[in-house]
Amino acid sequence: MQVNGKELAVEVEGNGPTVLMVHGLGGTSNVYQVQAEALAERFRVIRVDSAGAGRSGLTDDVGIASHADDLVAVLDALEVDAAAAVGHSMGTLVVRDLAARHPGRVSALALLGAVRAPADAVRQAQRDRAATVRAQGTAAVAPAIVANALSAATRRDKPEVAAFVRELIMRQDAEGYARNCEALAAATDPGPVAAGLPLLLVTGADDAVGPPQAGREIADAHGTATVEVLPGVGHWTTLEAAGPVTDLLLKFL
User: Fold this and answer.
1) pTM of the predicted protein model
2) 62 falls within a domain
3) Is residue 218 part of a domain?
């Protein structure tokens, strides 16, 4: 789909109220495959590969705000007034920015593995990762992501999930991935989620990237959010706990 002068991979399936699903750094729309198939029985599900990621084209305009603006353009193109937005990892910053700057376009918000705006050390780590990927390709960072972002239980008991995450990272366009690393490094806090907006937060108990405390802080600022912490799960929530995340989204939506 052509939006905002760029070519984005967009998948649409199902009928009913609209659910917009946004992946995180290193992900694609396929991280939601299990959830999307279930939701499409009751909802119209829109999945977007963000600019520079997955099957979407590379662009100079890569940032949290530009990703959110692209989502607005996708909703416009599909004639959708408002959608429930689901974000994972960096995607939680994108959908929070979308809800903050375009409040009428978001009817509910589900944040999976919610991340904070990065601290200085994390910003530098993301810039360093971008430099490594540009110099050596995505294969240079894939093993560390598998080791650090998945729980020990997942790596031990679900090796197919570890293999899929490795493939997701290694199949990214190196420059697109680097620019998205820099987008995360430049991210700022979108501010509290509006108190009247239904909010669900799901995170893994072993998530070191978007730790449970980060979700609780967002929930406390909101006031009435639902918070679920999944035992034995790391940062790739939709893959490590595909069934439980699907059930929580169906119940929430």
Assistant:
1) 0.97
2) yes
3) yes
